[in-house]
Amino acid sequence: MIDELLGQLVIRSAEEVFETMMSLQITAEELSGEPLFNGEIHLCATIGFAGEWNGFISLQCSEGLAYRVTSKMLSADSTDIKKNEVWDAMGEVVNMVGGKFKAFFAEAFNSGIEAFKMSIPSVTMGKNYQLFVVGNDTMPETVLKTDGELFSVKLVLKKRRHRFG
Amino acid sequence: MDKNGITEDVMKTTETVFKSMVFMDINGTEYPDVIYIPEKHLTAMVGFAGSYMGLVSIHCSDKFARIVGGSMLSMDADNLSDEDVRDALGEIANIIAGQYKARLGEKIQSDEQVFEQSIPSVIYGDDYETHTVTDAPRYCAKFETDYESFYVELALKRT
To answer: I need a surface site. Which of A2, B18, B22, B147 has the fewest CB within 10 A?
Structure first.
């Protein structure tokens, strides 16, 4: 139930950012269980959450979609874009999606009070790698579609354990 | 070396953690270049936020991560599962971040926690590069060990 609510907040966050910043519509898709990327170059942009709640949010998309997203953000032709601009743009996208999620989460679960702050984004790019969370925690995945392509958002979020005594 | 001695702090913190948790003596030097590990490797990352925000990353080969994991878990490196290896390296990144937090707090003479940490994530593969996306300064050290070298990076900025 909570995972479902969090998934809805993730979708809302991505929708607002993609529509406002890039004029891209987003639809939620069914999880097929198959990996989204099979040996093709893809990016994974991640930002951490730290505070009363801890975790991270990670956005994964193909290289092609990352370049198109960057071109929309920079209002530039995707053929003119340099790799470091894609890093920066995708870092900024996950920063904005994380920021929206933070606001929606506070509203939905924390009486409007900030539940966590955000760290600095990192972006990984390559053909053959996977993102893992440490420990036995699950990493719920939301699959979305934009500009004709699937991408995913993974979220890890846990309440901080308080130590007493 | 940076004038605030942050790279030095990263080196000292990592050396202390490896001595106490991995029972390994290591030697760090400043490393300003792009990190490149050609074979199967891992990057364990811990973000943090508070009065300071940033990211601690540790980068090493799969082979070295197994040696670290084996030492931490008192197990043969060859008998570790991939999950054990990821968890061990993630835990090391977490401890380095935590120890650096304490060192930073002492340095700025703050009684309050200077930041809180996120949950560690680990990238595992044989063909990827990872970048911290920020205007914050990057402090990176390369460590030599009896086995292989590895890298620890810190991106840090005052909020």
So the answer is: A2
